[in-house]
Amino acid sequence: MSVKIKKYAGEEIKTEDLKEGRVPVERWKLKARYAWSVGAAMSRFLEEMKNGRIVARKCHKCGRIVVPPRMFCELCFRPTDEWVYVKDTGVINTYSISYLAADASRLKEPIIIAVIELDGASKGIGIFHHLGEMKKEDVKFGMKVKAVWKPPEERTGAITDIKYFKPAEV
Amino acid sequence: MSLEKIGDPREIRHWMGHMECDYSYTYGVVGEKFFKEIKENAKIMGTKCKNCDLIYVPPRLFCERCFERLTEWVEVSKRGKVHTYTVAYIDVDGSKLKKPIIWAMVEIDNVHGGFVHKLGEVEPKDVEIGIPVEAIFKEKKERVGSMLDIKYFKPVK
Amino acid sequence: MREVAVVGMGCTGFRSITPEVSYKELMFEAATRAYEDAGVDPRQDIDSFICCSEDYWEGFSIFDEFVPDQLGAVLRHLFTVSADGLYGVATAYMLIRTGAFDTIAIEAHSKASDILTFANIVAFALDPIFNRPLGGHPFYVAGLEMNRYLHETKATKEMCAHVVVKNKKNALANPYAGCGANITVDDVLASEPLFYPLTRLDVSPLVDGCVVMVLASDNVARKLTDTPVWIKGVGWNSDTPWLETRDWGRAIYTELAAKMAYKIAGIKNPRKEICLAEIDDRFSYKELQNLEALGFCGRGEAGKLTEEGVTGRDGDLPVNPSGGMLGVGCSLETSGLQKLLEVVLQLRGEAGKRQIPNVETGLAQVWRGIPTASGAVAVLSNNLR
Amino acid sequence: MFVKKRVAVVGAGLTLFRRNLKQTGRELAYEATKMALDSSGLTLKDIECATLGTAPDAFDGIHMKGENLLDGAGAWRKPYSRVFVGGGTGVFVANSGWWHVASGLFDTCLVVAEEKMSSCFPHPQYAFTTIFDPMVERPLGMNLVWIFALEMHRYMHAHGIKKEQIALVSVKNKRNAMDHPCAQLPAKITVEDVLNSEVMVWPVQRLDISPTSDGAAALVLASEDVAKKITDNPVWIDGVGWCIDSTYWTNRDLYFPKYVECAARMAYKMAGIKNPPKEIDVAEPYDPFDYKELHHMEGLLLCKKGEAPKLTEEGVTQRDGDLPINPSGGLLGVGNPIAAAGLMKVCEIFWQLRGEAGKRQVPSDPRTGVAQAWGDLMQYGSVIVMRS
């Protein structure tokens, strides 16, 4: 019981002591590799990226057009019905400015990231991507943006076939 | 089930990736003392539960049966018996081992537990359940305080 | 007391590889079948969903994130039990028994073919200080166990080989099974030695597949189906996680899990009261070891019963009529549900060519695999007496 | 809603929360479990089953780590399993203890949560890179903080909330943690300190975030019959709730946590709570980031959407306010060993409702408390309602 407990267990170690090997530790490097089956929906999506197009799936029951595409409608719990191309333009739903890389190391030049609601998809349906060719001060909620694609010969059928989204000319 | 499926095997794709990180495991309050004794003195230590009259090897902070905190350390024998063994012919990647590895559960004499370790200086055909074995340590200067400080267990008379 | 029944199930079947579908599409298929079988709409009728998975089998941290959509569980109640699907069933059983839940869906799947470094991942489950640094293929743990089991019970490698022959043959009559074959005891004994005394054919091959089950309380079950299969008892248990102090010859966890399940089910003499069993056979010797742990026979008797054909499909105590994991394949955390699926099919009288006549009570049991000493048991009946 | 058996919390235990602790995972679990048992007056012999909550295996660096930790959770030769709902696990594991006992199958149950994030070295952030979809997200170099920054920004945008308002949460919680004996980052700081701290992913700054930690927490649960025999002041678990939203987080409006609302409604219905702000005396919503406390107050229906910052400014959420929020110091102050941090919140409600929280005790003699955790890809809510 909290007021009755006088001492709590736990021996603290300083991170520097761990880094510099002053505390004995066993080390391990895990080998955990995967080849995930991409499946029907994402195979087509990634293939279309090579063509510079974004493909979505439509559910005829609720009428929603969703991307990333899936072969099932999660709201109706039924199969989705057809492939629909959506535009490579959209508006910024939310964004932030990162000084951190994936490994938590510090970036010199911040990167801008955003959720972009795509034109042609249902309202609120967005994808995550980077923003480019703009200053961090100029980014705004609701701003129109357009995908900047890699040249066709450099595309591999991946989300990174889009380099980033840039401000769209209005 | 989905209404459209992949029909052309050339359209099947796989996405490669991993879940790899580096890890660093502290030995814990009991493990630290255990490995210090191995490293410095080539001694095997256990902790004793008086309630259950058991000596745990490897040592534990607590008795898994009665949950008492174990504070009494005892030095135990380096000898034990093969409780069970196996001969491994393949490595972790599935490749055939050039020399099969003999693994054994070695029950250390008069304690609860012992070590799952390799047997050395013996051929598979000469191993039997119940044979006495002894821990063979690395030279002191090579010992770092790890399970690998015991090179293997070797049959003794 | 509230009774609990299996009212629906769906299965994709089990194959060594399923490259044309993602894990999401695989789950969607099994879920669609299960809800159709149960006659429920997951968007309204399921009070909670339970998924059974472990992160490293999937290649994701927090795999729980990736499950709701394809099960119809968006903005509904769902959680993950990091264990075999049979633990999910035990959890559903508890939820329904609280009185606050009527209908629960349980999902488990295997996409083992997505994993490129399976043995490295199993080794990652070993204790990082005392076991893992020694390296090696972690299946040495099974070799150690098998050798001790044979030593203590005087069972033979031939008896274990009989298990493989029987189960792979049973699988030939199971359209879900992916690893059936017509082979002989000599074929098993002559197969490549892996971890003496374990050979290649003593080890169940990995497969992909998904099972979804729907469980309901008695009042709901009777409305949904004319053939509810009642869960009479569940049990689960764990021996120590330390390799160094576990019992290498006996499956203590199976003994204790069975004791719990039998107590709830009111079973005193399992051999007399249970008509068929689907038990863990991810290695051949496990079927014998578990048979004894479940109290179907005395210690050291399971091998003889197997050789005599008692555990054959037309024997007195059919064991693994589905083909077991040796015949259907090892589907990781789905294994327990695959076993439960067979028990339910048999008790419904829907097992086709494999149907065992006049069965009333069946048992499913599963182990969590290397390096664990944990497992679960469920006892089911088509008769609520 | 009819529930077969009423379930009581009769003991709680906690270790220190620190960036790195020497203890192994199972040693940490043992310390918390032992403390919880000792405080309940029960021994391991009296315990019939155990349930464990722990977040990704990728932190501790052990596959199927629930199995590895089981002896520390007091589960030797007992029915034992692990539940896992990402960051929501810590509160959820208490829910799972509830159904073990409420089902009538068991009279006593250990509830244990452990996290040793420091094993993932040099930084636990590496483990977070694999929580994302491998095809559409991981190739873009995802960082965990990114998605929360996106959510925070959307929340601020939707209601016109300023960073100054949000920073007040960090100031309050770190100060509350000064009175918590296990706290990792207790501090007296000002709003300016937060606003001047290093920008990580705008609008998230260094002092908006809870740290990574090692630690463990535990509870002992008992059925009504057992509880009444061993204690005069059990704390009852009267409502449990959980909910998950879609994996496709870029298809959702992040300004409001619907999944928390759904989980809260489930728990409130079970507990018979109709007017949460009136009926709940103390709350421990999940606060790995300062904005999350506000977000989750709204999800828990403790105030209207967008109103939480105002209540915070008015001091309502202070320990001596009308609706004390995170009197423990929360994750921002006490630390964030994921699952253990969630269960720490349940421990805090237990101690608050027993009047045993010492210097942290809220003065209003609380009778009803709620704890909540949040997890997965900003999609999971787990809620527990407790009464003295």
Q: How would you describe what is shown here?
A:
Chain A is mainly β and 170 residues long. Chain A has one domain (39-167). Chain A contains two helices and twelve strands; from the N terminus they run αββαββββββββββ. A five-stranded antiparallel β-sheet of chain A has the order 10-9-8-11-12, with no helix packed on it. A three-stranded antiparallel β-sheet of chain A has the order 4-3-7, covered by helices on one side. Chain A has a two-stranded antiparallel sheet with strand order 5-6. Chain A is extended, with a radius of gyration of 23 Å. In chain B, 9% of the residues lie in helices and 44% in strands. Chain B has a single domain (25-155), classed as Nucleic acid-binding proteins (OB fold (Dihydrolipoamide Acetyltransferase, E2P), Beta Barrel). Chain B has an eight-stranded mixed β-sheet with strand order 5-3-4-8-7-6-9-10, covered by helices on one side. Chain B starts with 13 loop residues before the first strand and ends with a strand. With 157 residues, chain B is mainly beta. Helix content of chain C is 35%, strand content 18%. The radius of gyration of chain C is 19 Å and the shape is globular. Chain C has helices at 23-38, 55-58, 85-97, 118-123, 140-153, 157-171, 185-190, 218-224, 252-265, 270-273, 284-293, 302-307, 324-328, 335-348; strands at residues 4-11, 48-52, 78-81, 103-111, 193-196, 198-199, 208-217, 229-238, 276-278, 361-367, 374-381. Chain C has a domain at 4-116 and 206-224: Thiolase/Chalcone synthase (Peroxisomal Thiolase, Chain A, domain 1). In chain C, 74% of the residues are buried. Chains in contact: A-B, A-C, A-D, B-C, B-D, C-D. Chain A binds chain B through residues 11, 13, 18, 23-38, 40-44, 46-47, 71-72, 79-81, 157, and chain B through 1-6, 11-27, 29, 32, 35-36, 145-146.
Name the structural class of chain B.
mainly beta
- The backbone outline of chain A, from C-alpha atoms, is extended
Low-confidence stretches of chain B: none
Strand order of the largest sheet of chain B: 5-3-4-8-7-6-9-10
Record field, number of beta strands of chain B: 10
Instruction: Give the count of helical stretches of chain A.
Output: 2
What is the average per-residue confidence, as pLDDT of chain A, rounded to a whole number?
A: 94
